[in-house]
Specification:
226 residues, alpha/beta, 2 domains, three-stranded antiparallel beta sheet, 60% helix, globular
């Protein structure tokens, strides 16, 4: 894993709402990993919920704030607003259904991707499936959208080529994969004989907290670990 890992809001909210934010501390303290976020992620996941007293997200917001204050999560303002807008414009005008562009990414996701390019960060932690597929397998995303909407999806080739060339070198990690890496690096050993049970519980909890991991994927992974 790279020393610097860029995170979006969804990952941090999934981890904190699952009481798994200790994983961030584990990798920071034992593997010299720094988790990086842009100001928009701090605003969405910390400042906004606290200032507006959004009870549904307040617990996560407080725990993310603590991780920032503890230096485990670092807010980096790299002035990427213009690049983020450009990226969002391309991403939301690359696939068309019945002549209408499909909105694929939000402003926060586009800022994360723009920051990864600006800082030349290889790893991005992101749970949202559409953005992840746009990074890793845009052709599969097109096929998925065709099944979802039951129409042929048209492609703006110029946007497609520029978009994919900008993100194809990035590697996406889900919060579930951070759980798996933590298991493989000894995070769950304190549970003794219940180590694998704790892993299973963590994976199901992270799924129900918003991470796009399938039941079959969880079962397949658990079948391979000792």
């Amino acid at each position: 894993m790279s020393r610097n890992v860029l995170c979006d809001s969804g990952v941090l909210i999934s981890l904190t709402s699952s009481c798994l934010d200790r994983l961030l501390y584990f990798f920071a303290e034992n593997h010299d990993v720094r988790f990086v976020i842009p100001p928009s992620v701090e605003e969405e996941s910390v400042k906004g919920p606290i200032e507006r007293n959004l009870k549904e997200y307040l617990f996560s917001a407080i725990r993310i704030r603590d991780a920032i204050q503890d230096g485990v999560v670092t807010v980096v303002d790299a002035d990427v607003e213009e690049e983020a807008e450009r990226f969002m414009g391309m991403a939301n005008n690359v696939f068309f259904a019945r002549g209408r562009p499909l909105k694929l990414v939000q402003s926060g996701e586009s800022e994360v991707l723009a920051l990864s390019k600006k800082l030349d960060l290889e790893y991005i932690m992101i749970d949202e499936r559409t953005t992840r597929m746009l990074m890793e397998a845009p052709q599969r995303l097109k096929e998925h959208l065709e099944k979802e909407f039951n129409v042929n999806i048209m492609v703006n080739k110029n946007n497609y080529q520029e978009l994919t060339s900008g993100v194809s070198s990035k590697k996406a990690l889900r919060s579930s994969e951070l759980v798996m890496l933590a298991y493989e690096n000894g995070f769950f050993k304190n549970y003794g004989k219940l180590e694998k049970d704790a892993l299973r519980a963590a994976l199901y909890k992270i799924k129900y907290s918003g991470c796009s991991i399938g039941f079959d994927e969880i079962k397949e992974y658990l079948s391979r670990v000792k």
